Structures are given as structure tokens and as C-alpha cells.
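Record type: monomer structure entry
Structure origin: computed from sequence
Chain ID: A
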Amino acid sequence: MKKGEGIFCQLRSDIMMGRLQSGTRLPSGIKLAEQYHVAHLTIRRVLERLQREGLLDVCHGRGIFVRNLSAYKEVTIITNYLTDQDAMFPRPLQMALASSGYVLTVTDIRHLIMHPEYWSYLLTKKCDWLLFDASCEFPMEMLSKFPKSVRKVAFYCFEHSHKQYPCEYVLSDCVAAGYEAAGALLACGKRRLALIGEAATPPHAQYGTNYEYLCGVKKRLAEEGLELVHTDFSGHLDDSTIQDWLSGDKRCDGIISTIDYLLMPFGLQAEALGLRIPDDLGLVGRCDTPHSRRPGYASIDVRPQEIVDKLVAAMRGKAPIRLTVAPTMIYRPSCPKPGGKTSRN
């Protein structure tokens, strides 16, 4: 275990068990670093993490104090990728909840897969809210094992059947995302579109991100009397298939991806075939990671901060939470906005 992790666990335990009382002023970061024989930067990261989890209040000019936990509700957050440096949700969500007075326990699904014994801790600890990113890896059957008093809210995506696993949610509107992406390519003169995505749900499943994207794309194309030329949700297309899509009898002039990194091979193959982007091929992905920004691919912005803001605001009320957040289109060189400004960031 890294020194910083050990110090974090010790201080967190001391606060949660009452060994550090509410209102207690902690020594300065420099003194704590000397006390634990670690670098000041290590202590600063530990204190920032404790603050994000709602356990400390940092009062500028006054010091660092243990928060009064008796007045706050506890939230367990299970994200899809806590350790991914490009992850959109963990930090904004932590900051918004901690500043609103919630005490947090944060983990990700990969940690739970590697350490299944951690579930027993989550199931038995005090918890008022369970917030989870319901990716395809999330074991939805675990929801029923949490006490009924715990409010369970899926945020961002839901790669499962709502009929089988009903719960509260604040989700990205993937139907609108597909509709907007198709509309952007149509506005650029593209008529032969394909839709690709990861293998997030079983083939032909009528739920999840891929299916909702498909509904949105089909709806927009139907308005023009068009249909998709190709659809693939395997998450992997070999070079020969991509070449066939770009130059064969069923050639495409626009590709929509439900996740941005899947567009990279299409950009490389287009260059190899001498195709010009966006003249011969338009590309639109979903902006989950920086991949779509690096080559200047147009993207759907899922507006993570708005999802966080709506989620935290809804948690203050008693009404069931069932919200979707419509995405926005970011026009870049692979699908420029006709007569408008194009972002190159």
C-alpha cells in the first residue's frame, strides 16, 4: 500500500469512528507531513481527497477542520472508471456532493471486480444514497441486496433493461445524441451513413446506449427517406471490413460512433485510401474521452457537468428522480457546421 493511501485510510477511519471529533482542527499540511514522514505533496493529496469525500472543511485563513457528520447524509458512488485520468464524472460529482454536505464513499466497478469482498463492506455500511454508472460491467443484481431505505440512482449511462432493473436515474439522452449526430452529417451533405459502437449490450438488445443511438439515428434518417448503410456493435472492425465500408459497393460517406475511439481506424484508413475528411467522409463520435478531440473529429458532448448539477439538485427533493440530459454537438473539421464556426480544440 502506498504511504498516501495508508494515511488516507487512517484519517478517514479516525473521523468516521469519532476518534477525531467534529470541529477538530487538524495540524497544517507541513506539520502532518513531518508527523507521517512523507512529502508535503502526499499530505496535500490526502487532505484534498478527504475534502472531496465530505469529511473535512478547509477554511482559508483559519485551517482544516473535521466536518460535523451527524448532520449529513452518506452517499456511495460506484463509477465506471475512477482511475482513468480522462474520466469525466468522479471528481465533478465528488466536489458537487461534498460541497452540498454529503459524506462520500467512492469506488469503481473495476475495483469491485478485482476485490468482490468489498461488496460486503458497501452493503453493510451506513448509506442513504447509492449513485452508480450502470455500465455493461455493473452487476445490477447487487441492487436488490442494498437496504430498501437506500435510494438508488443510475447516472450517465444505463446498459441494462429498465424493465428488469427499475431505478431512479439522471442519464445522458442517447436517442437525442444519435438524432443530433445524424442531423449534423446530413447537413454536411452526407447520405450514406453507418453506426458503430462497443459490445456494451447483447446483440439485438432493445435497451442501452447502442439501441438508443440507433433509434435516434433511424428517426433522423427516416425524416429524409434514408436508411443506415451499415450497423456494427461489435466494438472491433478489421481493416478489410473498414476498407470495404469506405470504398466498396456499399460505401459510406459518414460514420457515427457511440464512443469516440472507434473512429480512429476509420480516419487512418481514409487517409490510406486517399479520401478527404470531411469532403469524402464525415466522422462524429461521442465525447467520452479526449480521443475525438486529438484528430479534430466532430463529437457529441454529453454535458457531464449538467448531469452532475441536475443530479445533486434533484437529491435535495423527495420526488423520484427520472431525468435525461440532452447532449450538444461540437462541430470540428470532420463534420463542420455549414456556415458556422468550427471548433479545432
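Annotation 1: The chain has three domains: 3-68, 70-173+305-325, 174-302.
Annotation 2: The chain has a mean pLDDT of 87.
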